């Protein structure tokens, strides 16, 4: 077992992460008497209730079974109940393995606790299944090897389909948890999020309210996130004065003052970002002006639990704009725009050809002006969608862009663009 609390204390107190903090080892570590964490993507936290295990999150469909096996080495027997912190696939996808364990060993069925919006999320996933498979493949496509994930996040058995989701129970669950837990709803990464409070122990299971990265409050391919409400939830957790924090990603944290400091810094980063965006909106700024003005201080982003390695502040800025200002970015031409292909063709005609635009894109990329380079690479690709030479350059530009990005989301999208053009260039 790893000493996760000593590791997190060292990282938080020093402000330096000289090793991974979002570990996916599959290893079980006891973090308190009768309480353990299995580090995975995402973690499962389990408490020995004396009448079977109460588990928080089932992890991913590819990791649910190994987690159950680890838990059984630690505390063999029935899984009493499963608490969904929220309905994302990496938190609920492994639930079938938990169900199967009880069934195969003659145990009573487990109970499932989750917010009422979890089932709505499952319904939405089913109605948009091809879209969700597509965007998850792209989101994680830039770093999938690092995470040990497959190219399209398909289930282990193959086939492009979403996994089995065990729905939450609608019946009263007080007989399962007694007075040992309090469940609190808060919007943040999702609208169906629960954080769980152990009042007698001063423990808190936060799910994705703490992810040891800058908050995932602006994902460019997903539904609305809630940065203001996220910060409010962190403030409510601070008020409970927890002494042990159990996140669904990253290291557990011990110590009332240490936990309060971490949560306060995350909440403050979100609050300040939202404040600055809304102030500019109130002054009539366009989204373009806000994106290129609002910043989170570099020393904040350097903190081990606020690094922009998954989501990033610029995407959260867009999420705040969308929450308060709708989808139009303030540029009149983009209210009812021309087709991308028509814009690209006209730019190419004015410039002397798509090849000229593509070469200029590469020059800009090599000189470090990656934002402008990508615009031109897209114009060229749209103008001549079947030109292998143009798309070879576009692929090269997006590979350069990907390598200069820090966040998984940006890397995945830019890698997707590069692959898109590589498939055309390879036909030459």
Structural write-up:
The chain has helices spanning 4-14, 64-74, 89-92, 95-104, 117-127, 129-141, 144-147, 174-177, 227-239, 256-282, 287-291, 298-301, 313-325, 340-351, 354-367, 370-383, 388-404, 408-425, and strands at 28-32, 35-38, 44-48, 53-56, 79-83, 111-113, 182-185, 194-198, 203-207, 244-247, 253-254. Helix 6 packs across helix 18 and helix 15 (354-367) runs antiparallel to helix 16. The strands form 2 sheets. It has a 6-stranded mixed beta sheet. The protein has a 5-stranded mixed beta sheet with strand order 7-8-9-10-11. It contains 18 helices and 11 strands. The chain is of the alpha/beta class and 428 residues long. 48% of the residues lie in helices and 11% in strands. A hairpin with a 2-residue loop joins strand 1 (28-32) and strand 2. Mean pLDDT is 92; it is low at 146-159.
- Give the number of DSSP strands: 11
Main sheet overview: 6 strands, mixed
Strand order within the widest sheet?
Answer: 1-2-3-4-5-6
Number of helices: 18
Order of helices and strands: HEEEEHEHHEHHHHEEEHEEHHHHHHHHH
Cα radius of gyration in angstroms: 23 Å
Helix/strand structural class = alpha/beta
User: What is the average per-residue confidence, as pLDDT, rounded to a whole number?
Assistant: 92
Task: Determine the strand fraction and express it as a percent band.
Answer: 5-15%
Poorly predicted residue ranges: 146-159
| Assembly state of the chains shown | single chain
| Overall spatial form | globular
Span of the ends, CA to CA: 53 Å
